[in-house]
Write a structure and sequence with these properties.
9 helices, globular, alpha/beta, Purple Acid Phosphatase, chain A, domain 2, about 20% strand, six-stranded mixed beta sheet, single chain, five-stranded mixed beta sheet
Length: about 270
């Protein structure tokens, strides 16, 4: 667990700070859920034992600095009554702007194909833990428009692209916040040293031919996703991207011009915007 300080020049009215978190993976379940979820919680706690400590430190840091928290997904590890309650407790206590991750809608983890229909089975229940719409939302801070979109399943949807275009019309510099990082060749290469796929949105098809079939199907970008990526790459008002998903920390660029910050599970990143 560490605190990272980052500076981004995006054209704000005055310098200000936010706290960036991602992939906390709260792992709570009790008798209100199934025995299977209680067992899952015990198993997953071994992977994410620092989640509560990280949230507490992030909250303390945010209060000390009077800064909002931007969380780029997987605050909870799977859908349970206790996880949703804990997430709501956190967002009620702190000023938290949220983009959904894939785990926000995981019922048991990997038991079914994760698509829109799967997501929508728990969306209404999970949404109640958060103040903003976790699939598409915006918030203006000191002249910077933070736009959160849900790309946890490696895709953007037509409604999200329309939402982003409407936000661009406001004429303000934009910082995007979403869960899954966008393709960057350097980041792709790092991921491929760790896994059999890159877990990124928008990887060119020729670089996915080595993927296992299920990962290829899961991550091959569709038409609207490619259109969204082109729009992000070409829109000059988009100044930075905040993401997570990979469980390690990385700073790179998308489309050779837009800073892309990937935050790790236990990292608390203080970003000063100017």
């Amino acid at each position: 667990m560490k605190i990272i300080n980052t500076n981004l020049e995006v054209g704000s009215e005055k310098p200000f700070e936010i706290i960036h978190l991602s992939d906390t993976h709260l792992t709570f379940a009790d008798v209100r859920d199934t025995d299977r979820k209680v067992l899952l919680a015990k198993e997953r706690l071994t992977c994410f034992s620092e989640a509560e400590t990280c949230l507490d430190l992030a909250g303390k840091t945010a209060k000390e600095k009077g800064a909002p928290i931007i969380h780029t997904g997987d605050l909870i590890d799977f859908v349970s009554v206790a996880n949703i309650e804990r997430a709501k407790l956190f967002t009620d206590e702190y000023d938290c702007f949220m983009a959904a991750g894939n785990h926000e809608f995981s019922l048991y983890l990997g038991e079914e194909k994760e698509d829109a229909a799967y997501r929508n089975r728990s969306l209404d229940k999970v949404q109640k833990a958060f103040k903003n719409n976790i699939r598409a939302a915006s918030r203006i801070i000191n002249g910077i428009n933070f736009v959160a979109l849900d790309n946890g399943y490696y895709f953007f949807e037509e409604e999200q692209l329309s939402f982003l275009k409407d936000e661009v019309k406001k004429g303000l510099p934009i910082v995007l916040a979403f869960h899954t990082p966008l393709f960057d060749k350097e980041l792709y290469d790092i991921c491929m040293t760790k896994w059999d796929n890159a877990y990124l949105t928008g990887v060119p098809q020729e670089l996915m031919e080595c993927y296992p079939p299920e990962r290829y199907e899961q991550q091959l970008p569709d038409k609207i996703t490619l259109e969204t990526l082109r729009y992000i790459a070409e829109e000059p008002k988009i100044k930075a991207i905040l993401t997570g998903h990979l469980h390690f920390t990385y700073e790179g660029t998308f489309a050779d011009r837009i800073p892309q910050i990937v935050n790790g599970c236990t990292d608390i990143r203080i970003i000063e915007f100017s």
